[in-house]
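> forwarded from #structure-qc
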């Protein structure tokens, strides 16, 4: 694995590579949370059991991803079994929720005040590997409160066991109704309370850092909007976000003239049974190639075994891979198809290239290269040639597209064989550009035939693929539309029926 940030001097990996040792978690619950977070946020950005001083824990888990900071608290409390339901709830809520919320706010305050005093171990011998910039950061507080699901199901006689959401419940003292969660403290950073049921559902459905943080941000806006919001559980609120769009982003697109919204139980189950949702999951399978690719680089970055890194070491590696990991699940699907298509169609003796141009001018430009390996070249020579060629391709992109500020390069061997395959990643900062570089790029463009007469293809894909009518069961016109919108079928997908 090779990492480069251009422009910057390249240094020998032995000088800059450092092994990062992460805690696995202090108990089974924390270990499970750590595994979930490694899967959702990927291992380079997820760190369990951090400390602020020797023997003084900071948080159960911390995710730092650019301007997004996620602080997790994981608390397992046995639910009381007295004959008084209100007393049982009050005791459990104060131990599992109220106490943990205070810990989250304290952790947030410490990180904002002392971002350079965050450590990976209780001896405080290993500092956090990246700079934590709190000036522009958006902090998300996630409280995982376990031990409530069975008691919740027993109390209501059925259901998923998830906690109900009511945003008219504000403040610790107002949380008197059993199994109802509102706004713990409206004057402080919003605390998202997940439970035994909703933790897996939420992190399974929104399993990229961009998808997950976008949901948390939009949910916070919704619950603090002044509208009365009621949902039988986090999982039933989720489909309304996943099936609605405002512009190019998912959002809670509820009627603006409504005073309140009520979401009843079963929305998540109906959403999961929707043929389009099933088709989405099937289409998304290829996207996990992108995750595997990122984790290959991350593994070498954390273990200090990269083939070559830039002068900034793991900080440069993190910067490169952050662009890869910033992509949503849907975008990863498209990018994975592009890379795998290039590998599939490029013979081992041919240099293949593909370029991904963003619809948003501010988005990253991707360069994918399948570079042939000649037998007479050593591994060191081959990697040097390939790295230089990838850099040239990035320069040409900047020359052809003046608004290309963030250019991400990826290179691997040409040919379908998986034996001995290696990968290089590169970041080219297009903001550092001058006339001399432009002249060089133009000369190399003509000499090597890069983007001289490019062929453009528009990729047509949808997040929720259409399915044949025969796969869709007949729905009564006054029944809720199976798309998960919550609207009657006759006013949604049945309008033209």
């Amino acid at each position: 694995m090779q990492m480069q940030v251009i422009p910057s001097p390249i240094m020998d990996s032995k000088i800059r590579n450092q092994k990062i040792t992460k805690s696995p978690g202090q108990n089974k619950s924390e270990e499970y949370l750590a595994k979930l977070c490694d899967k959702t946020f990927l291992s380079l950005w997820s760190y369990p059991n951090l400390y602020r001083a020797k023997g003084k824990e900071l948080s159960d888990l911390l995710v730092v991803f650019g301007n997004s900071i996620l602080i997790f608290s994981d608390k397992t409390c046995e639910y009381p079994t007295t004959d008084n339901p209100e007393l049982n709830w009050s005791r459990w809520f104060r131990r599992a929720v109220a106490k943990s919320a205070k810990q989250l706010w304290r952790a947030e305050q410490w990180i904002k005040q002392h971002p350079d005093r965050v450590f990976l171990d209780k001896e405080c011998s290993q500092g956090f590997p990246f700079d934590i910039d709190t000036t522009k950061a958006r902090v998300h507080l996630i409280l995982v409160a376990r031990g409530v699901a069975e008691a919740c199901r027993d109390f209501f006689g059925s259901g998923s066991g998830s906690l109900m959401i009511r945003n008219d419940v504000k403040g610790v003292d107002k949380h008197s109704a059993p199994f109802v969660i509102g706004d713990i403290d409206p004057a402080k950073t919003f605390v998202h309370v997940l439970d035994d049921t909703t933790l897996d559902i939420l992190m399974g459905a929104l399993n990229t850092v961009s998808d997950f943080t976008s949901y948390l941000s939009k949910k916070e806006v919704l619950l603090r909007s002044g509208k009365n919001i009621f949902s039988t559980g986090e999982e039933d609120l989720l489909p309304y976000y996943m099936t609605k769009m405002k512009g190019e982003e998912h959002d809670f697109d509820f009627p603006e003239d409504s005073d309140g919204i009520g979401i009843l139980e079963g929305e998540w189950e109906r959403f999961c049974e929707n043929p389009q949702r099933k088709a989405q999951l099937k289409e998304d399978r290829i996207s996990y190639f992108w995750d595997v690719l990122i984790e290959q680089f991350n593994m070498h970055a954390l273990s200090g075994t990269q083939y070559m890194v830039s002068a900034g070491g793991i900080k440069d590696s993190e910067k490169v891979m952050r662009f890869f990991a910033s992509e949503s699940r849907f975008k990863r699907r498209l990018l994975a198809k592009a890379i795998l298509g290039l590998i599939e169609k490029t013979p081992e003796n041919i240099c293949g290239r593909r370029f991904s141009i963003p619809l948003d001018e501010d988005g990253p430009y991707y360069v994918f290269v399948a570079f042939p390996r000649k037998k007479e070249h050593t591994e060191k020579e081959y990697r040097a040639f390939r790295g230089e060629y990838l850099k040239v391709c990035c320069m040409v992109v900047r020359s052809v597209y003046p608004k290309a500020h963030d250019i991400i390069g990826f290179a691997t061997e040409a040919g379908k064989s998986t034996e001995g395959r290696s990968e290089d990643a590169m970041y080219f900062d297009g903001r550092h550009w001058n006339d001399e570089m432009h002249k060089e790029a133009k000369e190399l463009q003509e000499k090597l035939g890069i983007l001289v007469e490019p062929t453009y293809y528009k990729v047509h894909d949808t997040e929720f693929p259409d399915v044949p009518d025969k796969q869709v069961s007949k729905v009564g016109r006054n029944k809720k539309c199976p798309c998960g919108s919550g609207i009657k079928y006759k006013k949604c997908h049945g309008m033209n029926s």
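QC bot note: The longest strand covers residues 56-65. Residues 8-15 have pLDDT under 50 and may be disordered.
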